[in-house]
Amino acid sequence: MSEQQEDQSLLYFNREISLLEFTSRVLSQATFDSIPLLERLNYLCISCSNLDEFYEIRVAGLLQLAKVDSAIMSSEGLTVAQQLALIKIRAHEMVAEQYRVLNVLLPQLASENVHFLKRVDWSEKQHQWLSDYFFQHLRPILTPVGLDSAHPFPRILNKSLNFIISLSGKDAFGRNSERAILQAPRSLPRIIQLPQDETGSGDYDFVFLTSIIHEFVNDLFHGMTVVGCHQFRVTRNSDFFVDEEATDDLMNAMKGELALRNYGDEVRLEIDTNCPELTVDFLMARFDLTADRLFLAEGPVNIVRLQQIYKLIDRPDLKFPKYTPKVPAKLSIKKNYFDVLRKHDILLHHPFDSFVPVVEFLRQAAKDPDVVAIKQTLYRTGAKSPIVEALVNAARTGKEVTVVIELRARFDEQDNIDLANRLQKEAVHVVYGVVGYKTHAKMCLVLRREDKTFRYYMHMGTGNYHPQTACLYTDYGLFTSDPKLGEDIQRVFVQLTSLGKVAKLHKLLQSPFTLHKGVLDRIDKEISYAESGRKGHIIFKVNSLVEEKIIQALYKASQAGVKVQLIVRGVCCLKPGIPGISENIEVRSIIGRFLEHTRVYAFRNKGEYEVLASSADFMVRNMFSRVEISFPITSKVLHDRVLKDLDCYLNDDTQAWILQSDGRYQQAVPVDASKPRSAQVELMNKLTK
Hints:
Blueprint: H1 3-11, H2 15-29, H3 37-68, H4 80-111, E1 114-116, H5 124-138, E2 145-146, E3 162-168, E4 179-183, E5 191-193, H6 196-199, E6 204-208, H7 209-216, E7 225-236, H8 250-260, E8 266-272, H9 277-287, E9 294-297, H10 309-312, H11 337-343, E10 346-350, H12 356-367, E11 371-378, H13 386-396, E12 400-405, H14 413-425, E13 429-431, E14 438-439, E15 442-450, E16 453-461, E17 473-480, H15 483-497, E18 509-511, H16 515-531, E19 537-542, H17 548-559, E20 563-568, E21 585-590, E22 595-596, E23 600-603, E24 610-614, H18 620-624, E25 626-632, H19 636-650, E26 656-659, E27 665-667, H20 679-688
Parallel strand pairs: 1-6, 8-9, 11-12, 12-13, 14-25, 17-22, 19-20, 20-21
Antiparallel strand pairs: 2-4, 3-4, 3-7, 5-6, 7-8, 10-17, 11-15, 15-16, 16-17, 18-25, 19-23, 21-26, 23-24, 24-25, 26-27
Helix pairs in contact: 2-3, 2-4, 3-4, 12-13, 16-17, 19-20
């Protein structure tokens, strides 16, 4: 390692390894006996899904980079090859742990009468029912492809379930094909629940699709003998690039790219561990993969498929206790929201607070005869969203409705294309934001005629306008009628929908223009306060901390004596606890029932904290290649509430993981074993009372 690499490695953690460590913390939840059994299975599945995306996007990106310039180094001074070598070690360790956990959970589920039946365990009745199921529902749509000069190796869909089958004997034409490929159509369920009345099965007896195909695969090759049948799965590069400068129709260009997503370059092969070495080598050569991207599965090649049983099993005792989000009294459904917001700002903290008021705000705006215009950003919103229905109804009543849809929201591209088409048919003005910049800001603006003038009402959030994820992710949403904030949001919408220079904003910080500099300036102020003998204090709660200048500024703050407390759910490239550099920095990650998603920046100033919420994490893309906003929480009551929420997270000693200077995360231990503290539990209890 060169001297420059060594210096860099002392200051930064590798982003990719940090992301894998987050997935490892999620996986660890599946090992805790204190968590209900089906929730543990769910955490396991989430960790597998995260690893899928890691290979589809992050590893795929590194492999592409290696083709362009393998000498490029990351922030901490590692070449692409060095990063891939570290990823190989950590990812293989994680996959081994995932299957170890799975093989612990399955017997525990069986003890609760939730069974995944192997072929050797099928009763005669079950075998007969499954045989009928195969011949009636599977065989008609299964199409095995024998491999010979007339039948080349088929195109394998990204993350699809496939079988490589070894054969002996001759077919009807006298051909002696040694191998065949069978692709399981995506329309087929991956797990089948056995009916009690026809099979004598228990309430929750399941069989994997793979088991059924293995049992009856001989019937697909009449007159030949199946020597071996092994499931495999290929992960492909799922990122894509659209040259926005070179196209005059972004939607059509994206449609073309989406059609190719399932056939990107191969980045990983998973195959069952019993597959013969010759067959493994055959597949590796076919997909042009090296040994570091081969994973042998001690079970089903796609553990994620197990997630579907959660809804099939009606066992509240195996799940988290049901929690019903509350609607703040000031926003009960009988209230006129505009009357309320003229007097008060309202802060929602999802999922502890219900998402219903966000939908109701738009519904009331759609029906109110004094509302003349609605402007909204949509990044991810769900296939059947009440938000969209409210916007459609507003347009139908003659209101001017403008929606900025981000077509490039990863893995939601097709949904957003469909959404854009639907809204355009309803006479909604639809725009796709700014060329080269994803619109990630979460904001809604309502213009209402009052007393011969106009007044702005708005909602700004840290998360998407998505009712389903609002039940699973923690996010803040602010309702306000602050006229200065209204002018700011109006100016941002004008930037997104028209042409012109950047207008100065009163209260908002905005990427890619003022947010990065605004954060750095505030850190500098804390440094100057500390250097003048005052107390400096910074609290950031974000999902990721990667951007180097912000990290460097935090190191400088630590050296000046500023207390820096960071709550970073996922990737963190900053190293805490480095002597002389970051002794005053603590980094913690909260992994709990809900996915932590709020972004909050708090600065002590001269004792009167400034609190801002934001749609932006501290990543290069958020600062410089996305449209983001950060908005102040100025109401004294709400300002204090956010600080108290942050205090809950900073004192969590149950679901917190503390980042060590060597990159390991150490789970916090309760100060008082009889009174453990969990931020999410405290917030649920607080808002339930």
